[in-house]
Structure formats: C-alpha cells, structure tokens
Amino acid sequence: MHICQKSSTFAAAKVLITAKKEINYMLEIYNSITRFKETFKPLHEGHVGMYVCGPTVYGDAHLGHARPAITFDVLYRYLQFLGYKVRYVRNITDVGHLEHDADEGEDKIAKKARLEQLEPMEVVQFYTNRYHRDMAALNVLPPSIEPHASGHIIEQIAFVQKILDKGYAYVSNGSVYMDVEKYAKDYPYGKLSGRNLNDIVTETRELDGQEEKKHSYDFALWKKASPEHIMHWPSPWSEGFPGWHMECSTMGTKYLGEQFDIHGGGLDLIFPHHEAEIAQSCAALGHETVHYWMHNNMITIAGKKMGKSYNNFITLEQFFNGQHPLLSKPFGPMVIRFFILQAHYRSTVDFSSEALEAAEKGLQRMQEAYARLLKVQGDNVHGTKGIEVAGLRERCQTAMDDDLNTPFVIAALFDSAKAINTVWDGKGTISEADLNELKEVWKTYAIDILGLRLEEQGGGDEKMKAFNGAIDLLLGIRLQAKQNKDWTTSDKIRNELTALGFQIKDTKDGYEWSI
C-alpha cells in the first residue's frame, strides 16, 4: 500500500462470498503509482475489489473505448480464473463531465440534449444501451455493479462536505473548489502523474470564468449551475452539480470500501482525473484508497490519440458495418478484440485498416486451428509423435502472470496451432491425453480468459454468420454433387468461389474454406 496518510484509518471493503480455492500469489501487475511490477496481493484473502472508469455516455463508443473495456475484461476474467471472488465496479458518467475536461463550459451530455432537443436522461439511456450492445458484441463481460453518477448525488455532496470539514476546500460564489496549494503542504500532490506543484502552476493557463478560484489549478468539487444549465441538484452551497472527479472517489468507496485493490482506466486519465481522485480521497479520509493503479495505453491514428475531442474517432458500429472512409471493409467484433489483445495493454496501438486486415487473418488462423483441434482424433496406439505439445499451459500462465502479457499467450497458442495442423495433415500423431490437454488449454486461455469466440467465423457478427452459412450451403451442395459424380456442378461451384477469392480445400471429412 502506498500511503499518504497521517492516520491509519481503515474501512474494510464489503464482500459477499468466500473464495473456494487456495490462491498462489504469482500474478505481477505494473503499478502506475510506483512505476514497478508488483506481486498482486489483495487486501482481503480470496477477494478483489476493482474499479474501472467507464464511459461518458453522450455518443457512440469508439475504438478508444474498446481498449480499456477489453483490457480490464481480461483482468476480470483472469482474476476469476485464479480463484478470486471479484467485485468489479465500472461507472457510467452521466453528469458533471464538462467540455475539454475543464471546470468551465457546457456539460457534454446537456449539450447533446440541447442540440438534439431531448431530455438529458434520454441521451444517457440511448447511448448507455448502445454501449452495452457494443460491449456484448466484443464479448466484454458486464461488471458486478455499474453505478451512474446522477444516482449518487447525495453521496457526492457528503464527500465534498468531508473535504470542506478537513479544511482542504473552499466555497466561492456557490461553487466548491479543492485548495490544491493547501493540500500539497500535507500530501504529495502529483505522485501518480510524476508532476510537482511548480510544474502544474507553470503548465496551467489562466482561463476566463475562473476568477472565483484562488488558483487556476484548483479543481471543482461542486459547481454552481448557471441559469441555462439544465442538470442541477440542491446542495448546501448552491443549486448545482458535482465536479467530474468526485463521482469516482464517491462510488469507489461506497461499493468497495475506503481501501480497495485495483483502480483502472486509460493512460489519459492519470492527470488530472486520477490525480484528483487521490487528492479527494486523502483530503476526505486521511489516506489513499487504491493499492494498485493500472492504466492501458492509447489507440492512435497517425500517431495522434483517437478521441471525440480530436474528431478523429471511428465508432465500433462503423467498424462492424465498414461505413467509414478509413476502413477498407467491415471488421467483426472478434477482429477488434484480437487486434487489441495482440499488443500489450501498456503499449500504444496505432490504427490502420491494414493492421486490422492482418489481425483478421491472424484470428482466422486461430479459428481454423481450433476447429481442427475439435475434430482431430487421439491416437493411443502410436501416442504423440512428430509434434511438441508439452509446456503450453505453463507458457500461457507465465505470460498472463507477467502483467497480462496477452501477446505472449497468443504466440504460444499459435505455436501449438502448428502441432494441431501437423496432426490434421497426417504428418504426426497425438495421444488422447495430449489432445485433451490441448483442448483444455485452448478453451481456458483463448476462450475463457482472452474472451475470443473462436467457433464464430467473422467474430460473431450477425451478417458474417449469415455470410458463412451461405458459403457452407454452397459447399454442401458441391459435396453432394461430388458424391453423385456430378463433376460439372462440383467444379463450377469451386471455380466460381475461387475466382471470388475463396480458398477451398477438400479433406477426408468434407471441406475447409477461407478467404
């Protein structure tokens, strides 16, 4: 634990279920606040509390939203695989997130509501539904709890009052601001981002409308609503709304306790959002709440962060239907998931349609290998010959224990795919025991932990399912024609599909095809 406290006040996280199996602490994760990999040890034996910053729901999810969702979905899956009972909290921001992440300007959701002549909660519900739809397509598991900021206004007001009571905030013209300078005298402000107060003073611009602050770098805990602001609630200080940073401090401690294990999010949230969270928690509680901070790196386009603020984003729906000028074709949800998992979560991923096409081919190779794995027969007479299958499970677990090294897991699975293909082609044999081990490892790591739907060609998209079904129908007719010695029909189907770019391979069990 990385303490900033004057006292050792501790509030136990709320837990519901007792873990069933003994856990060996081998998982190492990179802790952003210490800048080292550390062995993960939870606060409470067998239980993990994890909070991840979710979306601000004023528009459709894009590729940048998919990366943290998939990254922490894999972590959630792996922790459960290790035997932990995990309480995973991922919030929905539906109030208080102003334009440009600032303390002045229009609320992003209120602006969308005004432009589309809707109630703000209509906007919230519409885009939350669409976010859930996209996450389900990506095979991202739902969190244990998904609290909305607007549903926790009372708790946020109480949290602000605690900070005021401790003397680390001030009221100005109905708004409440964090007194960063006073806080920094008692606690190390900037420890997560590596900044010091002098750097922050130098980098912070004086903006219009911030005269009510003592210093430009003070941030809002509560904002007085202007007359045109349509989302506001009563408070002891004014009719207004909470600052953006306040919701995560409040909801994290409400559902996970005053200290919990993991807080995750995108690298772009380190400053100011997560830095402000640490300050709020220390100011209100006297100690930090989070033991391990984890951050995924960014998705970029031509070296620039993808995001709505830069107007260079591609929505997930556009990826799925191909309706964007930067896309050469539609890409199924599993292609997107595979594309993201090919890179370590702490590395930058630069988007291009060519990179997605390469990922699609890699996923197809994996799907084909898994389909063959399910069909090959074990040979107890000759045993395992001509292939190497030992050590796959250990390679996969070692990679996952090394800060979720998903690229190494994928590489290990591809290496075992060579053995699968060797047996499939009749150039080697495999014992029943080794075959079962291969099947179990592939299911555990590729499907259960990486979350890939390997039995769904095209990544599970409904249009791709229909497309695959149509090709299988044609090849089924061709197979029947061959059995009837109708070579004209058989050759015509094969030749026509080959001309369209399909590769058809006849096998002893029927056929295989790919594009």
Question: Care to describe what's here?
Answer:
The chain has 515 residues and is of the alpha/beta class. 43% of the residues lie in helices and 13% in strands. The chain is built from 16 helices and 15 strands. α8 links the parallel β9 and β10. The chain starts with 27 loop residues before the first strand and ends with a strand.
Q: How helix-rich are the residues, as a percent range?
A: 40-55%
Rg is 27 Å
Strand-residue fraction?
A: 5-15%
- Helix run count: 16
Measured distance between first and last alpha carbons: 52 Å
Low-confidence stretches: 5-20
Largest sheet: 4 strands, parallel
Arrangement of strands in the largest sheet:
4-3-9-10
What is the molecular shape?
Answer: elongated
What structural class do helix, strand and pairing data support? alpha/beta
Count the strands?
A: 15
**Overall mean pLDDT score?**
89
Keywords:
single chain, four-stranded parallel beta sheet, 13% strand, alpha/beta, 515 residues, elongated
Per-chain topology:
Elements lengths: L27 E4 L4 E4 L7 E6 L10 H19 L3 E6 L17 H9 L3 H18 L15 H13 L3 E4 L2 E4 L1 H7 L10 H7 L16 E5 L15 E3 L3 H11 L3 E7 L3 H16 L4 E7 L2 E3 L2 E2 L10 H6 L11 H9 L7 E3 L1 H23 L16 H10 L4 H19 L7 H18 L12 H22 L3 H13 L3 E5 L2 E5 L1
Parallel strand pairs: 3-4, 3-9, 9-10, 11-13
Antiparallel strand pairs: 1-2, 5-6, 6-7, 7-8, 11-12, 14-15
Helix pairs in contact: 1-10, 2-3, 4-7, 4-8, 10-11, 11-13, 12-13, 13-14, 15-16
